[in-house]
## 1
Amino acid sequence: MKRLVVLGGGESGVGTAILGIKEGFQVFVSDKGPVKEEYKEVLKHYKIEWEELQHTEDKILNADVVMKSPGIPDSVPLVVTLKETGVPVISEIEFASRYTKAIIIGITGSNGKTTTTMLTGHIFKEAGLGVGIAGNIGDSYAKMVAERDHDYYVLEISSFQLDGIVDFKPHIAVLTNITPDHLDRYDYEFDKYIASKFRIAMNQTKDDYLIYDADDEVIVDWLKKNPVRSKLLPFSLERKLEEGAFIEDDKIIIKIENNTTEMSRDALALEGKHNVKNTMAATTAAKLISIRKETIRRSIESFQGAEHRLEKVLKIHHVQYVNDSKATNVNATYYALDSMKTPTVWIVGGVDKGNDYRELMPLVREKVKAIICLGKDNSKIIDAFGNVVDLMVETFAMDQAVKVAYKIAERGDTVLLSPACASFDLFENYMDRGNQFKAAIKKL
């Protein structure tokens, strides 16, 4: 009996363990931190051996295959030892894909991947297709494959998950954009991070598709130097394309082979240029699966967007509060500031991943009236913008930040939480940060 060891007892780890049992593996789950009560119950139910608060090497190094949760870096000594002894260390995406015959739509990118994944899944559901939406969001992909396999999967995939693939191949791959992010995990070398994102296409053949942003110079340059085998379908806001998605006379045009689809830009429920791009990517994927134009249009008009992504929370005394906690890097915050139409009180800060704030400078000058720093160390933000805005306040808790924003904001302003940083200094994750922001607003 083959031995599967799962490192990390969270959503993807426990899901992989369930699939492992179903496929006849002897399974052991090991987590260096505590395992949540809900996951312990599941492990007990399936009689899966597990441990928490430690990694017992004797029970791990004898594995035939190891599934590592994406939060564990490759540089951890245990992972290095496993690889040196020749044990394959793979991601949940790789493991689960070996046990499904579904058509896979894989979506990656520094920003926009959650919205694009949710919108693509929404269109597929509206078309009546059996679809699972998983990967970096929602329920575990492996658990879905084990418990109720689907005909299609729309997967949001992070670079860390792509680092752990061997044979994984989406029929349709989407690359929303590439901007510097997570560089702390890639030796601060941007090229390593770009290469990681492009792994989504590494096993694709001429019968598969790569949908990508043709306005993104990083992607375009990389493709010139490192051609892929799949059929390229670009999208662009800046120019007309022979094939792919583009804008003409305020309409979104999608051309695939000799088939052209047109849609009014006004049909989009989501605001902002970046959401036009996310919509183009999702719609192109839907057209490749031959979903009808009417279904696509109806889906786009009814789509609500992702939580914690430019989410309008409340209006208090004619001030709009917007939760963009999911903006964990500079590029995501760029899109948020770009979509602001009123003077903005901007709440920013957290764990800096090697951020360069210079690209935000023109938008901050134009739109931001005050900055509220929210982090344990705000020095880099203060250095970057101290001379640019009239008012800058340091805070160290969400309640405090929201109270300060409430005092500063005037009729017609927007208070925007768009941190441009990771959340782990003061919060569990970006969702906790966004939820605390919403709770603090409701207390005002």
## 2
Amino acid sequence: MEKRQSSDLHPGFLPPGTVVGSWCVQAWAGRGVHGSVYRVVPVGQEQASPVALKLAMLPRDPRFAREADLMARIRHPGVPRLWEQGDWQHPGGTLHPYLVMDWVEGTPLYDWVRQHPLASRQVSQVLAQLARVLQSLHAQGIVHRDVKGDNVLVRRSDGGAVITDFGSGHHPDAVTLTMQTLPPGTPAYRSPEAQMFSLRFIHDPEARYVAGPADDLYSLGVTAYRLVTGEYPEFGEPFRDEGGEWQLKAVAPRAPHVLNPRIDEQLSAVILRMLSVKPEERGSAFELAEALEQLALDPGEAYPAQVAARGAAPDPQELVESAQHLRLPARLKSLIPWFASAAVAVLVLGMWTWWMVARPPVEESSLLLSVSDSSVRDGGMAGLGDAGAATSTEAFPVSSSRHVLADDTLPAPLQGQARPDVKGRCAHSRQVALNGGCWGPLPLEGERCEGLNGQMFKGTCYVPILSSGRQPTSNPIREP
């Protein structure tokens, strides 16, 4: 394979051995909309414990300074610690900010629940840990604004839950960076009050929704609901009252224990509380953590609460193995294999390598995508999450089944996206020309696609091909 010139380096895919500041890249770990994450060690200390380095895609991206400011305020075991911030000078002369944080060896939350037969009390324990992290953030005036399952890692060492990706976070002194009605976030996890605000002020370009702690708690509720049911909560359609004001009936989604009878009814009630249409009914992170911790201490439950993927019927043998698993010593529990996830990672890594090796040396475009299907979910990262801070005009969260049926709209190109030539061809034969833009088709679904800023169209995820000659200055044109 022809060795790449230093001038061809792309911040989204640095090869091992690249030096960024005083750090040496060991491996590429994943990416989101605004940055890529690498496993790095100090230069000349190859055997040192690794840390995570998050590098900006765009030169002088101001999001990184705000994220560093926010993370410097946080001291909690459920949040990666910030070690350093700096700027990496690309051989072409541009400066790209970077952040260095704790490397977290963990499994994305939704993968974790699929890999481990769990009891409701174990789910309660993990949710309680996440609520405690939010309690700490909210006490400092910090709002995460993108809480979701794949911005959560469960540490392999002790089973502790860690919230990652603070690229969308905000605190009272933070600089406003986006001029949109709604702040960055993932549509399916947005609170009803945020969605109603966007409807009520759809014709007011100056209106700005200010997310608060209740928004984070709703997002945690969506995360919990999907964790135990495999579905998204679904509410009634909005309507206009007699005065023409948009309203939403307090129609609760189906209780989690109805969709999954192995879920404890008390846990189900706490999850529904987080999903209350009225934000004041959700309570505080402290109150939710107290309730969840009490459920986690319940000694009477020994019934597995594992969720069958996408609603499939549970295998009876799986239940037997689950019961046996629950009686294993704690040390053995930590040794449950995660080879399935690793196999997917290897497969997608092979696809990336094949793409990079086979492509001709075209300088004008580069595919910015994830190497590891198991390392990126909803924009999250293995080791350290990076925001898939997508926004959408979609009014309300929909279930996964409805989401699949609504992918017949042509994907809208990004500003700065590579365009087909006059003959309608893109720079590479594996790229697809759609709706005036060049796209890379990938075998991803739903939030996995969205986490890479991709868009679903007729069952296929299309990830934008960004032109190196024109750096994008905003998110997709379709966003509000």
